[in-house]
Amino acid sequence: MLSLLKRYRELLVVSTLLIYPFGAFLTQGGRGREPNVLDRALLALMAPVQRGLTAMVDGAVGALDAYVALRGVREENQALRQETTLLKAQLVESAELRSENERLRRALAYSERQQETEVLARVVGFNPVAGPHSVRIDRGESEGIREGMAVVTPDGVVGQVIRTTGGTADVALLTDPQTRAGVRVQRSRARATVAGAGASRPLRLDNALRTDDIVENDLLVTSGADGVFPAGLLVGKVTNLSRTEHGVFQVADILPVVDMTKLEEVMVITSMIIPEREPVPEPPPPPTVPVPTAVAPGAH
Predict the structure, then answer these.
(1) Whose CB among 25, 223, 250, 256 lies 3.0–4.6 Å from 29's, allowing a Cys bridge?
(2) What is the C-alpha separation between 12 and 10, in angstroms, rounded?
(3) Closest to 149 (Cα-Cα) out of 267, 235, 268, 275
(4) pLDDT in tens, 25-70
């Protein structure tokens, strides 16, 4: 019994202090008497307890309100972050769609200007090994693509089909050392050949005679003489031109107009129009010269 009183003595004291004024209020509150000395002492003792309880209750209520408000703000911030992430993704997707639409419009405009038949294809893979330098496209034999066909973009020459399956094809890029293209200097019409020199190196100018009219920054276009690429497609620009005094050929680097590392859509030329040559008129037959008839001696 004593242990219980010791354990709960503070609670009993507080309860007694609270019960006494409450009982006095119930028994005498209606008469409105003046508080006596004991009432004043109890009220003085209870005032700090009441203020503490009030402050504690107000603090708990304030903390609960703050927690609720903070949780609401946190949830709102989380929702805003998710919305921002979604909007960013939509902006990226929209930019990608605009870029793709622009490329497809250029490809369509290019195709409408050409007489050849092209098949639009998407690049789906790059060759991961050192060579050949090639890409894989999502069109193949089922779309009429065959080995040896030229591959281009509206900007210029890309390469040549080297392998096909039913639904895909591999394209050797113009930068591949095994790839060649017949070209002309757009300005002077001098003929030459462009060859690949590796993925990270510019193209190489071959078979350009030392006497040919070629200067720095000349543009090269396909000549059509190789039977692969139609004439008039842009190939690259001449740079680092070198002409020796006694050599037969001049050499140069060619900067390709197509960035092979950023290919996304290409066009495969499935039928190339070869312009018919004008018939050469046959020379007229030589005029006949009358042969004099021999007269026998003595004839009149």
Answers:
(1) 25
(2) 5
(3) 268
(4) 544 544 555 666 666 666 666 667 666 667 776 676 677 667 677 7
